[in-house]
Design a protein that fits this description.
By secondary structure, the protein is an alpha+beta fold. The protein is 35% helix and 27% strand. A 3-stranded mixed beta sheet has the order 2-4-5, covered by helices on one side.
């Protein structure tokens, strides 16, 4: 069911689910919203779950790093065509090249 959602609120709600892990592992969470009031038409529950899963993946990747050095960055930007992009980055070790061919296999 699609509805109008404030994207910043969705990101904040997803972050709340992973905040205990962020705090435990001393991972810094940065958010940059480059759009004034980013409202989108989406399935709020599904999108929030996707964000939670991506945040958890970043936390897992950073778990192998030294505590206190992990950073997750979330940035929302808008193009001239009014599309919104969500960029989620972490400073974890990345995916080993030998696993690239398996990334999109079900």
């Amino acid at each position: 069911l699609k509805e109008y959602c404030d994207l910043e609120t969705l990101i904040d709600a997803a972050k709340e689910w992973v905040t205990p892990a962020l705090e435990k592992k001393k991972i810094q969470f940065n958010k940059k919203i480059g759009v004034s009031r980013p409202v989108i038409l989406a399935n709020r529950i599904k999108l929030e779950q996707v964000l939670i899963n991506l945040f958890k993946n970043s936390i897992d990747a950073l778990d192998s790093q030294n505590k206190g050095e992990g950073i997750i960055s979330v940035e929302v930007e808008q193009t001239e065509g009014h599309r919104l992009y969500i960029h989620i980055k972490d400073n974890g070790p990345g995916i080993p090249q030998e696993h690239f061919s398996d990334l999109f296999k079900p």
